[in-house]
Amino acid sequence: DILLRDRAEIQAATYGTGSTGDIQIITNTLTLDNSAIGILVADTGNGQGGNVTIQADSVALINGSSLSSNT
């Protein structure tokens, strides 16, 4: 089981020419409590955004948590 809380983040980001890479999570239960998982290509970046893959029996997003891809 995976629990992220108190503004914890899992992020793949690029701020330049490289790509972000991928995020892959395999677990029985994924709970985000006031936390985030995401891909970011910043304004200064021109690389490719990667994939977010989650394989879980249960996913809970609570207290403003998010899954995102910003390019």
What report would you give on this structure?
There is one protein chain. This protein is 0% helix and 61% strand. The chain has 71 residues and is an all-beta fold. The strands form two sheets. It has a three-stranded parallel sheet with strand order 1-3-5, with no helix packed on it. A three-stranded parallel sheet has the order 2-4-6, with no helix packed on it. The chain is elongated, with a radius of gyration of 13 Å. It starts with a strand and ends with a strand.
Summary tags:
3-stranded parallel beta sheet, 71 residues, mainly beta
Beta-strand content estimate: over 45%
Number of helices: 0
Model regions low in confidence, pLDDT < 50 over at least 5 residues? none
Oligomer state of the chains in this structure: single chain
Radius of gyration: 13 Å
Span between termini: 29 Å
Mean pLDDT: 91
Return the structural class: mainly beta
Number of strands: 6
Q: Rough shape?
A: elongated
Query: How do the strands of the widest beta sheet line up side by side?
Result: 1-3-5
The amount of helix comes to under 10%
For the largest beta-sheet, the strand count, sense and barrel status come to: 3 strands, parallel
Element-by-element helix/strand order: EEEEEE
Show the helix and strand layout.
Layout: E1 2-5, E2 9-14, E3 23-33, E4 36-41, E5 52-62, E6 66-70
Parallel strand pairs: 1-3, 2-4, 3-5, 4-6
